[in-house]
Amino acid sequence: MGGVPRRLANAEATELPDGSFDLVTLQFVVHELPRTATIAIFQEAFRLLRPGGHRRDRR
Fold it and tell me: Which of 38, 40, 45, 49 could form a disulfide with 12, with the two C-beta atoms 3.0–4.6 Å apart?
């Protein structure tokens, strides 16, 4: 994807600023993980969303 920056990070703790994104997507991953990791990833996704932002997950 040209022009889209990529970053390798721990999904549970990305170290990105709060409210950094309008949209956070999770693709085919959370159902494969332990419950504690899934909860932490969703918490991080919500933390990263700007007010009024959207989260999409595909299972």
Answer: 40
Please indicate, yes or no, whether the overall pTM of this predicted structure exceeds 0.85: no
Cite the beta strand spans of the chain per DSSP E.
21-27, 49-58
Q: What is the mean pLDDT of each run of 10 residues along the chain (59 residues)?
A: 78 92 80 90 91 72
What are the φ/ψ torsions at residue 26 (nearest 5 degrees)? -125, 120
Separation in Å, CA 1 to CA 31, 40, 41, 54: 26, 27, 24, 21
The answer to whether the beta carbons of residues 49 and 21 sit under 8 Å apart is yes
